[in-house]
């Protein structure tokens, strides 16, 4: 059974999502990366506020794992930049863990299977299994 988030966690999730999105979009603009769209789809902070799971949607999808891995390797710099922006809002900045949000791809695959006549509910082996992160 999943625990309900506290109002404080929900507020921190929202603020972190906005600030991380701003930092990443700014880094993409300043960098030499062309044709890249990054969006922060969801942020979940643990109950002790020590870890933040950040889910990203990346377009183009073919290089998504590379970008998420690069962000994970540079999370200390991102955490430092985030601390500079949020120093008056949070005392401690949580550790940042980045994950690829593949929910849109999964929905698209379900839609494709439904349009082709196959029913993913009757034949769950049609769809690739997803793991909880």
CATH architecture of the largest domain: 2-Layer Sandwich
- What structural class should be given to the helix and strand makeup? alpha+beta
Number of strands: 3
Shape: globular
Biggest sheet details: 3 strands, mixed
* Order of SSEs: HEEHHEH
- The fourth-level CATH homologous superfamily of the largest domain is K homology (KH) domain
Total helix count? 4
Describe the model.
The chain is α+β, with helices and mostly antiparallel strands and 133 residues long. It folds into 2 domains: 7-101, K homology (KH) domain (GMP Synthetase, Chain A, domain 3, 2-Layer Sandwich); 103-133, no CATH class. The chain is built from 4 helices and 3 strands, in the order αββααβα. It has helices spanning 7-30, 64-73, 75-85, 103-115; strands at residues 37-45, 51-59, 95-100. Strands 1-2-3 form a 3-stranded mixed beta sheet, with helices on one face. A hairpin with a 5-residue loop joins β1 (37-45) and β2 (51-59). The two termini are 16 Å apart.
Brief summary:
This protein is an alpha+beta fold. It has 4 helices and 3 strands. The two termini are 16 Å apart.
Write the layout of secondary structure elements.
Elements lengths: L6 H24 L6 E9 L5 E9 L4 H10 L1 H11 L9 E6 L2 H13 L18
Parallel strand pairs: 2-3
Antiparallel strand pairs: 1-2
Q: Characteristics of this structure?
A:
three-stranded mixed sheet; GMP Synthetase, Chain A, domain 3; 3 strands; 133 residues
